[in-house]
């Protein structure tokens, strides 16, 4: 891609192309098309690299092929940057480390382990599997959280519109009745009057609260850690989050240990990928215990946060020399548990939320039509 029309003409002339005119590519829709790179994009890229390397395609050529097929503009630029670094003699792990926003220390250390042992294609396959399972787990958690939140927001919005726009129309009609209104209708009218007068203040407070909460999580580690600890105590949702963290811990430790990373270093990487401050602190303590010579299963038991199944499977893995396999089985078990819990939660929450939404909207409609029904019975 040329930076100017003149440079574009020179490049085309070198290729034997005589261009009559050169125009700048339109970027009017770039705001909508040029999205940021997501973790799912990195997962797809890792799987593509693993497939190319297994097929025996050289590293630089693999990056060229993947970049050529990338539709995501920023992702294509990232892959080309990796290709430039690798072609200049930098190792793949070194090239990845230049982009810490997209490739964390765990990712880079696993790739470096594969390069050092001459098993890069095997390690990329393991990393790709790890990323895919991690993203699938995150998607399940988001599914469990997003659905009820979305329905609640819709319920609040519909109720607000009814109270601000619809109820006042009925109130004008009720003024001509000349008789006392039912208590339920009067209660709804009072709420409507209050919402009409204060809705701007309430909306501003909600926006300010949401913004303040997000900023506090970004700026205060203590606050963010407290929120993550509180998430573990929320009924129903807390259990899903806990199982997800245990699955992530088992999967990460299994992958790093299988890659030949020393156990203490693997635990450090696992603590960074835990996704919850309470468990990250516990994993750090486990690492300290292992460093002091305590068996891994005993160190895990000392935290009081992990289930008996994980401790037993870890002890068996240590004794049999198959720790990575045992941890992988634990990860499979808890990933399945999260999947089942999310499906059950969705099935349970749907009728409950719909009942609440129906009660809100139906209650407002009953309150508005009740005087009309009473007037008809009098006539």
Lay out the secondary structure.
Elements: H1 5-14, H2 30-33, H3 39-54, H4 59-69, H5 73-87, H6 92-97, H7 105-117, H8 120-174, H9 183-219, H10 221-231, H11 237-258, H12 263-272, H13 277-291, H14 296-303, H15 308-320, H16 323-378
Helix pairs in contact: 3-4, 3-8, 4-5, 7-8, 8-9, 8-11, 8-16, 9-10, 9-16, 11-12, 11-16, 12-13, 13-14, 14-15, 15-16
Account of the 3D structure:
By secondary structure, the protein is an all-alpha fold. Helices cover 80% and strands 0% of the residues. The protein is elongated. The relative contact order is 0.08. Residues 26-33 have low confidence and may be disordered.
Q: Give the radius of gyration.
A: 29 Å
Assembly status: single chain
Count every helix, treating DSSP H or I runs of 4 or more residues as helices. 16
Order of helices and strands: HHHHHHHHHHHHHHHH
Number of strands: 0
Hey, roughly how much beta strand do the residues contain? under 5%
- Kindly name the structural category: mainly alpha
What integer is the average pLDDT?
Answer: 80
The biggest beta sheet reads: none
Query: How helical, in percent, are the residues?
Result: over 70%
Enumerate the spans where pLDDT stays under 50 for 5 or more consecutive residues.
26-33
The general outline is elongated
User: Distance between the terminal alpha carbons, to the nearest Å?
Assistant: 81 Å
What labels would you give this structure?
single chain; 16 helices; 0% strand
Task: Give a quick precis of the structure.
The protein has helices spanning 5-14, 30-33, 39-54, 59-69, 73-87, 92-97, 105-117, 120-174, 183-219, 221-231, 237-258, 263-272, 277-291, 296-303, 308-320, 323-378.
């Amino acid at each position: 891609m040329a930076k100017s029309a003149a440079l574009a003409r020179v490049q085309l002339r070198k290729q034997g192309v005589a261009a009559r005119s050169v125009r700048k590519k339109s970027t009017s829709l770039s705001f909508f098309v040029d999205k940021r790179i997501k973790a799912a994009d990195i997962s797809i890229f890792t799987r593509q690299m693993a497939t190319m390397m297994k097929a025996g395609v050289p590293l630089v050529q693999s990056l060229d092929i993947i970049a050529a097929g990338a539709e995501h503009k920023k992702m294509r630029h990232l892959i080309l940057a990796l290709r430039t670094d690798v072609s200049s003699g930098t190792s793949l792990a070194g090239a990845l480390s230049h982009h810490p926003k997209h490739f964390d220390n765990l990712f880079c250390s696993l790739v470096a382990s594969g390069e050092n042992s001459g098993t890069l294609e095997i390690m990329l396959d393991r990393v790709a599997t790890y990323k895919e399972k991690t993203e699938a787990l995150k998607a399940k958690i988001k599914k469990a959280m997003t659905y009820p939140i979305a329905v609640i927001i819709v319920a609040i919005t519909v109720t607000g519109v009814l109270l601000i726009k619809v109820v006042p129309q009925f109130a004008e009609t009720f003024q001509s009745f000349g008789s006392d209104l039912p208590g339920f209708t009067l209660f709804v009218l009072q709420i409507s009057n209050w919402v009409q007068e204060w809705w701007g203040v309430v909306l501003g407070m909600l926006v300010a609260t949401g913004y303040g909460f997000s900023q506090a999580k970004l700026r205060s580690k203590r606050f963010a850690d407290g929120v993550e600890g509180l998430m573990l105590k929320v009924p129903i949702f807390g259990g899903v989050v806990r199982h997800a963290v245990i699955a992530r811990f088992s999967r990460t430790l299994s992958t790093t240990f299988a890659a030949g990373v020393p156990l203490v270093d693997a635990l450090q990487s696992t603590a960074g990928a835990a996704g919850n401050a309470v468990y990250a602190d516990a994993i750090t303590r486990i690492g300290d215990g292992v460093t002091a010579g305590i068996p891994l299963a005993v160190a895990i038991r000392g935290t009081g946060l992990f289930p008996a199944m994980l401790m037993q499977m870890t002890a068996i893995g240590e004794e049999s020399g198959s720790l990575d396999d045992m941890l992988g089985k634990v990860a499979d078990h808890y990933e399945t548990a999260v999947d089942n819990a999310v499906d059950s939660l969705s099935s349970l929450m749907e009728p409950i939320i719909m009942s609440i939404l129906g009660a809100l909207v139906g209650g407002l409609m009953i309150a508005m039509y009740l005087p009309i029904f009473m007037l008809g019975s009098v006539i």
